[in-house]
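Quick one:
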Amino acid sequence: MTSGTSGRDRRGSRWGNLRAGRLLREGAPGSSVLRLCVRLVRRPLLPAVRLWRRNIQLRVVAATLLISLAVVLALGFVVIAQVSKGLLDAKEEAAQSQAAGGFAVAQEKANAPATVDGPDAIDNKVGRDASTWMNSLVKQLASGGQTAFEVVVLGAGTGEQPLPGAQGVKGARASGNVDPTASVPLSLRRAVNHATGAFKTFSEIRYTSGDGKKAPEPALVIGKRLSDINGDPYDLYYLFPLTQEEESLNLIKVTIVTAGLFVVVLLCGIAWLVVRQVVTPVRMAAGIAERLSAGRLQERMKVTGEDDIARLGEAFNKMAQNLQLKIQQLEELSRMQRRFVSDVSHELRTPLTTVRMAADVIHDARVDFDPITARSAELLAGQLDRFESLLADLLEISRFDAGAAALEAEPIDLRDVVRRVIDAAEPLAEHKGTRIRVLGDTQPVIAEADARRVERVLRNLVVNAVEHGEGRDVVVRLASAGGAVAVAVRDYGVGLKPGEATRVFNRFWRADPARARTTGGTGLGLSIAVEDARLHGGWLQAWGEPGGGSQFRLTLPRTADEPLRGSPIPLEPEDSRANRARAATEAAGRAAADQPPADAGDRSPIPPRSPVGGALPVPADPTALPGNGARVVARPAEQAQQEDRADGR
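Output:
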């Protein structure tokens, strides 16, 4: 029971994973919202990204700005640190010297001998208590500092108080309305109470409420333990304000920031000017190259100076001049060739008509000739037919080359054109033992096109499929979707080798160059068909595999002058070897996923990943009209099957 339950759990989890995979491939409900959010975020950024990618001058200036800003910041930090250290060292040295003198004076006054009268009677020990003497000492020491320092006296043991900001500490005295207990850090007081010598630290001078408008200011505090007139210990502190040093440092910071910004802006301006001198000729060359590619071969660069840019401009102008000369020579040669083909084609029509009349007379009288002469008359008539077809094709090619081909487009139903083509090809198909099948003709396939040219294209494709189909069926499929209609002709004959799909539309090209052109058409049929498709603004594309047949697809816009964005019929048919192999692999994977495990310990193999939406991946079109192959959109397999069922397949 447990084994069966675990097997069902694994099978359920496997199906859950498969369903989750299909859900992710087909698109979760929130994926559209996510794509919309990404699109909304990207849309405002696209112009800036496009400008960044296309403007090299902007990139160079931005790089210069960032690099110069980083250099200025680094130099600013270094300079400010050095200046700050220098100011603090000088202040500390002067403060230590001033404090040492004050400590010496205070101790000297405490050690002075007692006298009764005289000018120093105010400092005598006789008749004076320690409190009065200490007040006098603070006032005397602070009088020599002006605003350079303040003096604070704390009684011994103050550093042991648990609350350093408490008021009324015994022996606490200060000059200049300084709060003695709040201005001297507790750590400094403990150091002075527990050791001998002078100690220093950085702190803030805080003032009492009597001078509340004065804000705290940074200071260097130096303290030392001394003895009063009674020999009792007390702590004397010198507080040296650092206001001037702070103002000097702030001034230096402002100066460095201002100078740094000025330097950064100046460097950006210099970079802009320098890059502009290089980029402007390049932009000019790019613009002239675009105009040259558009056919304005007389365009030239303006060259000034003798530097590298000037040499580049001279070389560019020489290249443009040589290119113009070569193009003119090629145009003249092409014009002469077209004129020659046209003149020869026209001039040959008169003697060909005469020869045709004589050949018809001989062919009609062949029954009176001996067998060899009669056979010669038949060969002569056949080759004259071939010669007339070749002459007509040459005349048509000359019209395309001269740009004189005109399109007489009108709304037509391609089903009627396909029926006429098949009716004309039926005798050849019966002779070859080939059956022509039509799919997708249950619904109208309407397009604005030249019926004569479309019929010529389809006749060429169907006849070629019958001739190279080796007696197998030829399938003609019609489809319409969006703004395009398509007709595909599929045969199962010799097919095409890799790379031949690109050359099959070349003039007089043959798959086997060693074979003489004694059979088949004139060698210009597919070339004319390509030109007819281009004249409609459509595509004529080929696909094939050796021994697997080939498929030619004609795609036309439903409305004249409407650009094509895809074709309703995939170029590679669904019954190709590659598609059949992928379908078999997918079916095997689904069968393996559907099969339950043998026992609880077995683990079924993970089925291969199916393509998105169940569609068989169709490779890109091998080739088509130049520049159009990459724009072909293949149909998913499910959509193709639905259309085939709708067409009555």
